[in-house]
Amino acid sequence: MIRRTDDMRKRSKGPLAACLIALALLSASGCSDSNESIPLLDRYALSSLDSIPEGVAFDPVERAFYVTSLEGGSITRIDAAGSESIFREADGRARIAGAKVDSSARLLWVCARLVDGTDDRVWAFDLGTQDLVHEFFLEQLTSGGACNDLTLTTAGVAYVTDSVNPFIYRLDPTTDEGSVFATDPMFEDIVGQGVGINGIVVTPDESALIVAKSIPSQLFRVSLPDADSITAITLSGDDLWSTITDTPLGDVPFGGDGLALLDGYLWVVTPSAVSRVDLDEGYSSGQVVTIPQIDGIGLSTATVAERALYVVKSEVANLVLDRPLDLPFEILRVDLDAFDANATDS
């Protein structure tokens, strides 16, 4: 820092200083306008060839996507123009899955699986410093506790799904304490492959959680604040699954992986399709419109970014089934208008 002397202050009042100040202000204004005017792209192709970016989240403040990785444990930041930078280096410590941004608290929450080859944890990073500022050990809440996906309330409380065990966890960053929030036999992983409950969102009025189960494909409503009511949501219309063929279990109808809320609808991501669910006022029933998005089975979850829905093509299903990966990994904008047309045609 340069200390300004009295003589420097006097000289700074001249016309040259005034011109320099004006140019600096114009330059700063121009940079800000340029950053804010960059539209989000329809497609972001990721440079990694092996990360398996299972989770994606968007920061509306810095207008950036964050993608996780099941292989290596890195977290990559992609700005609006598509430029990549490393938020967390790959160190092999964990398989990082679901992710959410708390834009107010400036936190990035992620599910860290098999940390150091042992247990599952939930990590929260400071978006500015990239430091790990919260760490929740799910093994302390229940034996073999696992983390698949999570959602955040406006107060910053996280609710986490366990796809191995029939539990939803509640994690409070203000106290750094967690608890088993809800459990139900309907949440059980009936095939024993870690495909129980998966995606999760909190409703706009924060009266309930909506939770997806992958096999069999189901949606559940879990009441807030105390989970005193857990019910299956009655669905009609299109199927809420993608069929994965030639698995060890045969042809498997695989249900919701990621969930998102946008424009009054629930959006459900399955391996090859996106479904729009028009839920009733009490979140007890819904009408489904499903549109395939890709030819393969590479999709995993979604995030909302500036009134648009983006899905990540992570190839996680192909990884699990030991099949070739369909590269590149991508973040893709979903054509929401197509759902209106499809609903009208049906």
Verbal overview:
The chain is mainly beta. The strands form 7 sheets. Strands 18-24-23-22-21 form a 5-stranded mixed sheet, covered by helices on one side. A 4-stranded antiparallel sheet has the order 1-27-26-25, with no helix packed on it. Residues 1-33 have low confidence and may be disordered. The chain folds into 2 domains: 1-37; 44-345, TolB, C-terminal domain (Neuraminidase, 6 Propeller). It contains 4 helices and 27 strands.
Give a quick set of tags describing it.
four-stranded antiparallel β-sheet, mainly beta, globular, 346 residues, 4 helices, Neuraminidase, 44% strand, 12% helix
What is the compact description of this entry?
The chain folds into two domains: 1-37; 44-345, 6 Propeller (Neuraminidase), CATH 2.120.10.
